[in-house]
DNA sequence: GGTACATTACTGACCGGTCAGTTATTTAAT
DNA sequence: ATTAAATAACTGACCGGTCAGTAATGTACC
């Protein structure tokens, strides 16, 4: 995690207090910023801390970035595009079955992106996109769109080759991506405190297995149900069971009885 | 939603400038806070704005909540627990097939929680849990844990009844919840700017279909592959996957053999 | 190769705006 | 008239952004 590259003040006098490393600084600052933005969120991250983690002073940060927001933009933009290009290249060269392509795509995605510091970006974007519409647009265009397109094209090939059932590509693509994104996001939020000790690899494996089985047999139930319905009773429309009758006397609204005590730790 | 409940200063003079509504304020403030926390994040939300949205002044907020953090805690705690109780009750009364139970559980989840203001809480928690370990713990215990337990128990019943293949319950539960969570989260972040016009209902429908097909046919490929392998080459036990160095092209297959593969427990 | 001069990467104290939290005051309600 | 719900002016800490100064490095001249 690239801590202070030279922050051990050795007793010997010859140690310079700092070095001039004009060309290494930006990347180091960007990495530190990414880590802190992911950890704390944009607003709660102090630039002093970013600078400290990169082993420089806040002034130095402003030599390379115009503002906190510029730093944020840079972090997202510079990091994610190369990663996408790589993924697309990888897949373009693949010409086996769609099933294999999908599987290896997901594993590559995990190993090359989600399990690295870049894996924090989805959380960051989910948390901040409404505060930075411009960046959100960029991210949507360059990452989400291209990512789902990638998945969609592979699945489409699978359908064409008869590996998968025909299905609604747009929605399926988003559905199968979701667990991967959640995996990445969780690792940088809930898992961190909640002491989850699930194995990410096992999670990916399970998801891939579920997904492939799903793609192969999608829609079979509909057929079965239609047959069953026809055999049994006059058609009952697809309904959502159980009206919302608020069984318990509780309101689903947030409710504060008395004054909320502060902390008490 | 829920703008200033009484903020139209009518020209008639008899109008009081404000009302005393001791018992309605807390809920109104909490809702306003939830909306803004979800929209901007905790740190970027100003209490003046929360108060304004609830139609009161900041001082009033402090009559009911001791601090910004207490407000945050209250919002999460008071809102989510009743919702969980409801879901558990609903499922306890269900005694049809596991497949039906799962499906209706997901639809209820969508209609009763995810599509309401409460649907913003997952995003809020993902974004802020590292800043509030205490709340994260609470949320993990009272929501994530209970939610996955719910799913797991239904799937376990399905396995027992022979509806589903045997599978790793822990991981599968998290995998099938992920798309629902992502749906909720997206609606409050990326979708807001990115002009996604996907239909949430169609998304849920697609996910349910995929999931059920997956559960019914989970692991069939493994069997098929084993047979193919046995037919082709002398059985070599699978080795660990290519150490994620993954220089190029080839896909690092997930290890299928090895230690774990704990089936439904 | 040593020394004086020039350049610039880097520092850290400081400033000003913002906002969580407080308090003195006003006003609805009984 | 009394009580307490609600207000609005106020305070002070904190943090993004600035800049005058400093120290590391590069270079010209001997």
Any chance you could write out the topology, listing elements then pairs?
2 copies of one chain form a homodimer.
Chain A: H1 25-40, H2 47-53, H3 58-64, H4 68-92, H5 98-114, H6 121-128, H7 133-160, H8 169-187, H9 190-194, H10 200-217, H11 220-232
Chain A binds a DNA duplex (30 and 30 nucleotides) through residues 16-22, 25, 46-48, 56-60, 62-63, 67-68.
Can you characterise this structure?
The structure is a homodimer of 265-residue chains. Chain A has 265 residues and is an all-alpha fold. Chain A contains 11 helices and no strands. The first copy, chain A, has helices at 25-40, 47-53, 58-64, 68-92, 98-114, 121-128, 133-160, 169-187, 190-194, 200-217, 220-232. In chain A, helix 1 crosses helix 2 (47-53) and helix 7 (133-160) packs across helix 8 (169-187). The longest helix of chain A is centred in the middle third of the chain and has 28 residues, at 133-160. The radius of gyration of chain A is 25 Å and the shape is elongated. The relative contact order of chain A is 0.08. Chain A binds a DNA duplex (30 and 30 nucleotides) through residues 16-22, 25, 46-48, 56-60, 62-63, 67-68.
**Poorly predicted spans of chain A:** 1-13, 235-257
Overall mean pLDDT score of chain A? 83
Strand content of chain A: under 5%
Tally the helices of chain A: 11
User: Looking at the structure, what is the overall shape of chain A?
Assistant: elongated
Q: What is the strand tally of chain A?
A: 0
Structural class of chain A: mainly alpha
Largest interface: A-B, 98 and 106 residues
